[in-house]
Amino acid sequence: MVAIAGEDLHGVHEGYGQTWAKAILMGEHSVVYGHPALALPLHDLQMRAWAQPIASDQEPQLSALDYEGPLSESGELFGGLRRAVEVTLDFLGHSDQRFSIRTESDFPAGRGLGSSAAASGAVVRALLDAYDVRASHEQLLELTNQAEKITHGHPSGLDAATTSGELPVELERGAMRTVQLRGNGYLVIADTGVAGSTREAVEGVRSRLEAKPEVVEQLLESLGDQARSAIGNLETGQMEPLGASMNQAQELLNALQVGHAQLDALVSAARSAGALGAKLTGGGLGGCMLALAANESDAQRISEALLAAGAQEVWTHHMVA
Ligand code: PMV
Q1: Are residues 167 and 36 in the same domain?
Q2: From the CA of 29, how far away is ligand 1's center (Å)?
Q3: Predicted model pTM
């Protein structure tokens, strides 16, 4: 319990919330046009948030990424996070209570790993915890998605669901379902260190679709087919065909012009080191890639190859039933 001199806190105390990163395994870009996508929660890459109640004459502060200062002056990058504070306090009926917010993350922002949804989700949970209030799963998603609307305009909801959920999530035409994995594999995720803009990538695909509809529709269709078969392979535990689908998807995404030379370099390093498949993940034009490894020692070898090929950071995720 944090005491504030001279103020009656009505039982409010410092709150804590935790979420994690996500990675899109298959279906980025084609999901925008109604095909399925699958995203995985990466439970080891955590986002932690603390909400500290402060007196009504104090200025709420934010400490997040490399920002340290008044919450109200934290700029566009933190617009979603500020919205998360606002909607959660409204939900709690405590809009007048002020909080300072601190977040800490195990993974970088702006690389397609779901940092904005994870931060908003963790802040929502920290504020609820400050009042010892438990919200339903739907309420938590709704509050996080309110914040995501500021960051992404029209969020699909996939990031909010996977950065706080236990299971992989499939999204198709706005409908989400959790997917039960069979079998065993390792995903090695690597950051190119290049910031790719998802908005720019999505707009680029749209303008190419308008310019050459037959060609681009066919690419999107094929990406959708690969995502569909990959999801089937995950559910039956067939890792080799899953890897083959990932390789196919990478070619198709390059044909859509959302690739990047550094992504190609990492993808080919992973394949040479024995990956079953490798592709970019998320919007592309930089950001992260992921590789599928059959076992832990392959994953280790692939990680080393990725670092040697210039990856800024590498993480390994054990996919297990
Ligand atoms: O870069 P991310 O992880 O936000 O993923 C973008 C996925 C896209 O399919 C390219 C866009 C979208 O809104 O689904």
Answers
A1: yes
A2: 6
A3: 0.91
